[in-house]
Structures are given as C-alpha cells and as structure tokens.
Amino acid sequence: MNILVINCGSSSLKYQLINSDSEEVLAKGLVERIGIDGSQLTHTPAGKDKVVIKEDIPDHNKAVKLVIDALVDGSHGVIKSLSEIDAVGHRVVHGGEKFNKAVLVTDEVMKDIEELSSLAPLHNPANLIGIRSCQTNMPGTPNVAVFDTAFHQTMPEKAYMYGLPYEYYEKYKVRRYGFHGTSHDFVSKHAAELIGKDRKDLKIIVCHLGNGASVSAVQNGQCVDTSMGLTPLEGLIMGTRSGDMDPAIVDFICQKEGITAAEMNTVLNKKSGVYGLSNYASSDFRDLSELEESGNKYAKLALDTYCYRVAKYIGSYVAAMQGVDIIALTAGVGENNYRARRGICDYLGYLGVTVDDEKLKIRGEDLIVSTPDSKVTVMIVPTNEELAIAKQTVELV
Ligand code: AMP
Prior knowledge:
It contains 15 helices and 14 strands. The N and C termini lie close together (10 Å). Strand 9 (203-209) and strand 10 (213-219) form a beta hairpin. The protein is 38% helix and 19% strand. It has two domains: 2-147, ATPase, nucleotide binding domain (Nucleotidyltransferase, domain 5, 2-Layer Sandwich); 197-380, ATPase, nucleotide binding domain (Nucleotidyltransferase, domain 5, 2-Layer Sandwich). The chain has helices at residues 60-72, 107-115, 124-137, 157-160, 166-172, 181-194, 248-257, 261-270, 273-277, 285-293, 297-321, 331-336, 338-345, 357-360, 385-396; strands at 2-8, 13-19, 24-32, 40-45, 51-54, 87-92, 103-104, 143-147, 203-209, 213-219, 222-226, 326-330, 367-368, 377-380.
C-alpha cells in the first residue's frame, strides 16, 4: 500500500509517501511558511533531483493541493494518479485520555481532537486543518490519526499524577501525558528485535534525544513512565526547552523582568534548554560540540548539564522498573552526536555498563555500542516515526 504520512504544524507541513510493503520512501518534502510571505514547497522524489516550488501558499488547503500535484507531476512525480494513494496517516500531537491507539478519522474523532485542543493549543488545531485539507483534496481516501500521546496511556496513576490538588485533574485533566510516543513505541520494539527477543520480556529505557527530547521506561512492552508531562516542556533539558525546574521560578522571573506568565512560557519553550544555557550560542549539538572543543565554557556547561539530566532520568527509570535490560538512544542527537552519547554513558558504570568508544563514534545506524560483557545492552536505534505512522495506518485501513 502507498501511504501518505502528514505532519502538519501551524505554518508548515512535512510529508512522506511510503510504500508500506517495501518500506521504501517514494517521495518526501516540506511546505514552509504557510500563510506567510516567502512560502515554498521543497519536494524530494526518490532517485530524482529535489525541486523547490516558490509560490503563494495562503493556507493548508493550498499546501495539500501542491503536495498532491507534486506527487503526480509528469516530471518530478512518483505516482500516476491520486488513486495510487491508499490512505493518509496524520501525526496528531494530543490524544488526551481518549485515545490509546491510532484511529480511523470520523466526524466524532474530529470533534474529540478539537476538544483536546485546549491541552495542545499550538498543535491539535494545525493537525485538524491538515486532516480537513486531505478530506477536501482527496475525497474518499481514508485518513488515520496517530497520536503522540497514545503509547504512554498505559502509565499507572502513580506515574501520571502530579502532586497538585486533585480537582485540577477532575476539572481540567491536568496530568502527565508524555509525547514522542510513536518513536518510543517503534524504538523499544525494534531494540528488542535487534537482540532477538520480544519486548514483552524486557525492561527498556528509550532516550529520544532530538531537538525535543524525552525518556521512557518500557516494561513488558508497555510504557510505565515518561519524562514529558501535560505539555512537551517537562523532563530533559532540550534544544530550546527548559525541562524540569522549580515552578516558583516562573513567578520570580515574571516579577523581576516585568513579563507575563505567557511571555515566560515562551522563554521556557524557545530561549531555554542548551540554547539558553550556552548563553544563546546555539541549540544545535554540532555547534555546541565544536564550541566546547574551542574552549567555550557556556557550551561545555550546556552539554554537561544536558548529559547529567539524561543520566538522572535513566537512573530514576531503573528504579521505577527495578532493573533494565536495554538502554536505547535515538533521534538527531542520540543517533549522531558522540559528545552527548559519551557524556551519558560515562554515568552508567554503576549499572555494569561498558561501551566500545569506537562504536560510539559511528553515526545513524542500528548498532549495539555496549561490549559483550556489559550487564545492560546499550544501543543506537534510529527512529522512523513516519514509517511507524504508515504501518499503523495500514493496520487500520
Ligand atoms: P531531531 O529533532 O531528531 O531532528 O534532532 C535535532 C538535533 O540533532 C540537533 O540538535 C542536531 O544538532 C542533532 N544532530 C543532527 N544531525 C547531527 C549530526 N550529524 N551530528 C551531530 N548532531 C546532529
């Protein structure tokens, strides 16, 4: 089956057309600056040159239309007609407590996703627009919603409740949900396969270390804890997000700087993390690693603090599961950055972990980096959220 996977943001739309049988990516691309001056589509068909189409893209409807046109185009297209797209799989950020797995989109599902928008005001409305645009441009093609939160719905109450008045949970559903679920699910499953075991028999810690970053504890195939919370701000120090901190800092800084809570929220999401810690040098780990090597003390502080936080989360999940068999690193930093991998593994000796330093330098492939005598298997498992979405879409249609 050919599945179009769509990840819709407020002003962007990423897509991949995937043949789910061969797992081949037939084409992928990105529509940027939707509704803003300078909008464009970058379309990359497999085995052909990339094309950039610059034109006015006022809304997501137009964006989806352009994507479809590019896919069926005589020169840079990869299919002859729309009928070759069997279904569309959409990444939807927040499924709340309502969705613990992917679902076929119906009017009722659309209503539920809309109601959940209060929990993800930046993401769910954009995801809905993406689904509606596909319904308009591809009538009759089924749409599937795959939720970022779904995999974490197996967390027990003690892991997802905050130490807050219970009424906030009852009235507003304030609790921990977790994100990157599609990646944690895919990586934990694949990690078990790589050592020839079933995930149902293992305790696995997945560290999804990208621009956004989160850790999950997967015991007997189910998520039992994860580091992101009501929103993707909690947990690890990320590219530009603060992760865990004393909540009283919000009011303190608001008073000192004369800013509103909403403005502080923007600081915590966009100007914090390794970017803020490095004195705004960069949020990119390639830059930070180079800066550290050239003696920049802020870059070193950012990287040291980042690795320490990841190591503390790993330790807490070993405690939560009373042990660990596999620690898997994934996403941009986990798959590529030696400095962060080394910095994290340096904390794991107490678990009986030993790693091969040369293997820690290899990038972007499935790889066991621990030595054969290591008590815990440490591995790099490149994530593939698009393929995971395509597979879940196939299962439903
Ligand atoms: P993601 O959100 O998964 O795309 O990850 C983005 C992060 O991965 C950025 O901070 C990059 O610095 C990091 N990253 C991506 N590619 C590389 C690379 N080749 N070497 C080091 N870091 C990388």
